Amino acid sequence: MHGLGVNPADDQLYVATHTGLFRLDGETPVRLANRYQDTMGFTVAGKDRFLGSGHPDLREMRELDLPPLLGLIESTDAGESWSSRSLSGDVDFHALGTAGGRIYGWDSTSGRLMTSTDETSWTTLGTYNVSAIAVNPDDSQHLVASTPDGVIESSDGGKAFTPPTSPVLVSVAWGSYGAIGVTDDGSVLARSDDATWRRVGDVEGAPQAMTADQGRLYVAVHDSEDRTVIHRSEDAGATWSQVFREAAG
User: Fold this and answer.
1) 109 class by beta-carbon count within 10 Å (0-12 exposed, 13-18 middle, 19+ buried)
2) What is the pLDDT of residues 216-244, one digit of tens each?
3) Angle, CA of 180, 75 and 103, to the nearest 5°
4) What share of the chain is helix, strand, coil (3-state, %, to 5)?
5) Per DSSP, what are the bridge partners of residue 207?
6) Measured on CA atoms in the order 119, 120, 125, 130, is the torsion positive or negative?
7) Among residues 77, 70, 104, which one has the least CA distance to residue 174?
8) CA atoms of 225 and 248, how far apart (whole Å)
9) How would you label 232-241 residue by residue, b for 16+ Cβ within 10 Å and e otherwise?
């Protein structure tokens, strides 16, 4: 599992995986368009508008002569179909974040952290090892990113980043209450005004992806039986309820 996002058009949670994009209708995951595209980087950019990256469905790769690296792709119909925006064949974004018309992406093939304001022309900000990116929805110049050495932060669109600081987060998101992240043991941490991180709650399982939607948070984890479980919080990460558990087998 690579990404989570809430579509403002239908208020549904969408789940990007190695084997396709799913919409969570209640507790039922619905595969979109019967497609098996490996959607690595994934972010919701607006009503029914998704941005992603990764690798094509093998059937479509053969039939449509698609490259193994999709670059930046776009869906304007809530994941039913996708088209290329840029960097096709060259880039595999494993992390994407967007706000205010600016997008940030981390290319797993080169280690480059990149940004664009038109989704076609890109600027390289530096070389990092990034697992997740969160952008302030009220200030597209302000972002945090999780790395194996800790969290890096920029307030100038990625021209300069702070040195990595504790904690090490598996994933990060940015909601109406600010930046929030989760560690590999399930500790949920919120960023304080002084740029430190404080524990606000816990989720059970090994975290895989996280997203924020106004006052709601979602975290996808793997449980002790390696099944996917999705938790939701409506109090900024203090308490969590299960909204989906993958069936056994």
Assistant:
1) exposed
2) 999 999 999 999 999 999 999 999 999 99
3) 45
4) 5, 50, 45
5) 221
6) positive
7) 104
8) 9
9) bbeebbeebe
Distance, in Å, from the CA atom of 156 to the CA atom of 140, rounded to the nearest integer, reads 9
pTM of the model: 0.95
Q: How many CA atoms lie within 13 A of 164 on its CB side?
A: 12
Distances (CA, A) of 20 to 33, 146, 174: 9, 25, 25
For the stretch 15-63, pLDDT in tens is 999 999 999 988 889 999 999 999 999 999 999 999 999 999 888 888 8
Q: Which amino acid is at 198?
A: R
- Sign of the C-alpha dihedral, residues 163, 164, 166, 172? positive
For tokens 């669109």, name the residue.
157
CA triple 76-61-121, angle to 5 deg: 50
CA dist., res. 151 & res. 143, Å (int): 10
Tokens describing residue 165: 């600081």
The residue with tokens 């002790």 is 224
Tokens of residue 100, six digits = 């205010």
Per-residue tokens: 33: 């368009």
